[in-house]
Amino acid sequence: MRLDGQGLLVLVDPVRTDGAAAARIGRAAKAAGVRGFLIGSSFDGAAQTHAVARALRESAPGVPVALFPGSAMQLTDQVDLVLFLSLVSGRNPQYLIEEHVRAVPFLRQHPVPTLSTAYILIDGGRVTSVESVSQTRPLPADKPELAAAHATAANLIGMQAIYLDAGSGADRPVSTDVIRACRAAVPNRPLFVGGGIRTPDQAHVARQAGADFVVIGTVLEQDPGVRELEAFVEAVR
Ligand code: 1GP
Question: How high is the mean pLDDT in each 10-residue block of the chain (237 residues)?
């Protein structure tokens, strides 16, 4: 099952969500017309990822599930796609290439499709888990040209997608200036935007600025209803 086109993606953190909760989110998301799921955590989650991915697949048949891994330890074959993330806003070799090499034995045994993705962390007003776990600093929020240069370089290297993230639970989502600049710099690759998006309006703004996929996670952790999800789906249509 392919994750293409545009739409709303729901991020499920396997550390904070058990199988039963994932199944509830899965059913509500399918009913609301969510485009797909991301599953991942910046820290730990290796033990639960497999079961949570499976619960999402069973509860939302036909909705693609992509792994958004914090490390190679979270790999599972219960997904349709692995976002093969390189944290290009940082300069920590572990998240630029090392985890990728560690992933190879698993991917040899379980040939899940991968999408090489330039993962660009943008300052969202607070220190988020990605920043502290990866020991990298986000790019400044008010320097769209710097974010765009990172996106361009990643595209020139041959990366297939761009993910702009203010970090889970960010105070401020990625600004429209940054999204627009990256969209203009890399017009023909899928652009994911997430982190700190709490309202359908904010999701709409990100989509209007050029995001193909708008990602929400934290706002759904209190058992979202179909109606709430529909409002987000509608906002990014
Ligand atoms: C974080 O982009 C995701 O990596 C989603 O962030 O949890 O703040 O919605 P939130």
Answer: 92 91 94 96 83 96 96 95 98 97 97 97 96 96 98 98 97 98 98 97 98 96 86 96
81, 115 contact by CB (below 8 A):
yes
Residue 169 near ligand 1, beta carbon < 6 Å: yes
Structural domains in the chain, CATH included, are 7-235 (3.20.20.390)
Atom of ligand 1 nearest to the CA of 193: 2
Measure 168 CA to ligand 1 centroid, in angstroms.
4
| Ligand 1: nearest atom to the Cα of 130 | 4
Q: Across the chain, where does the E strand assignment appear?
A: 7-12, 36-39, 65-67, 81-87, 114-121, 161-165, 191-194, 213-216
Does the beta carbon of 173 sit less than 6 angstroms from any atom of ligand 1?
A: no
Helix/strand number for the chain, H first, E second: 9, 8
164 lines ligand 1 (CB under 6 A): no
